[in-house]
Amino acid sequence: LDGAALNRKMRLLTLASIAASTGQTRSLPYSAIARALQIPAADVEMWVIDVIRAGLVEGKLSQQTQTFLIHRSTYRVFAENQWREVASRLDMWRSSLVGVLAVVRQEKEAFIAQKEQELRELDSKMNGGGMAGYRPGRQQRNAVEAE
């Protein structure tokens, strides 16, 4: 590889590293990128597009605020700090899923209760409306619970 290609790769990796190190802000000002890559501010967007094309970072450029908003970044070195961040994100994800599961269970129980109430009302109408003795079969009730 020639010097220019090596220089380009180092800049891409540097940009990926600073994107990964943004922490919770997930935002990089153009000026910080220009300083880290030792490039003119006018070239920042070109380098950000290159690092996105290389698959090292995903994000969005904001020309209005002169910032790069990072959605995902690849770490140059995956060390203990990165494992902690992964664990933290997984914990947040897990707690969100626990909440979703609770809502789904609650809605399922409400649905089953509603269907059982409808069956009871239908049963009482049929018993009072000349169809005494008619009771929906077990199979029909199980079908309601399965829904």
- For CATH, the homologous superfamily of the largest domain is named as Winged helix-like DNA-binding domain superfamily/Winged helix DNA-binding domain
Give the number of domains: 2
Number of DSSP-assigned strands: 3
Rg: 29 Å
Distance between the termini: 63 Å
The whole-number mean of residue pLDDT values reads: 85
CATH topology of the largest domain, by name, is Arc Repressor Mutant, subunit A
Strand order of the largest sheet: 1-3-2
Q: Which sequence of SSEs, written as H and E, runs from N to C?
A: HEHHEEHH
CATH architectural arrangement of the largest domain? Orthogonal Bundle
Portion of residues within helices: 55-70%
Identify the CATH class of the largest domain: Mainly Alpha
Overview in brief:
64% of the residues lie in helices and 11% in strands. The chain contains 5 helices and 3 strands, in the order αβααββαα.
Summarize the structure in words.
With about 150 residues, the protein is mainly alpha-helical. It folds into two domains: about 70 residues, Orthogonal Bundle (Arc Repressor Mutant, subunit A), CATH 1.10.10.10; about 70 residues. About 65% of the residues lie in helices and about 10% in strands. The chain contains five helices and three strands, in the order αβααββαα. The protein has a three-stranded antiparallel β-sheet. Strand 2 and strand 3 form a beta hairpin. It is elongated. The model has no long low-confidence stretch (mean pLDDT about 85).
